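We store sequence with structure; for instance:
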Amino acid sequence: MAVRLLFLGRLEDVAGASRRDVDTGSLDSVLSALDPDLARALRGDRIRIAVNGELVADRSNLILADGDEIAFLPPVSGG
């Protein structure tokens, strides 16, 4: 059973790849299993999360199921 994590923008650089497949579980347990620098970046207050294309407002009790796709969206700036 797997969940696909998608890293956008600068998060792709931190992760070293644009995506990664991980085991299911709570968001906290999934992030805890990652490299500490990546986990810290993904837990940032300004990082938005989309589950299967829908933005999530409250990530505190998020449980990731088999086949879910989780996108981590960093803040965007433009010029």
Summary: The radius of gyration is 12 Å. The mean pLDDT is 93. The longest strand covers residues 2-7. Helices lie at 10-15, 27-32, 36-42.
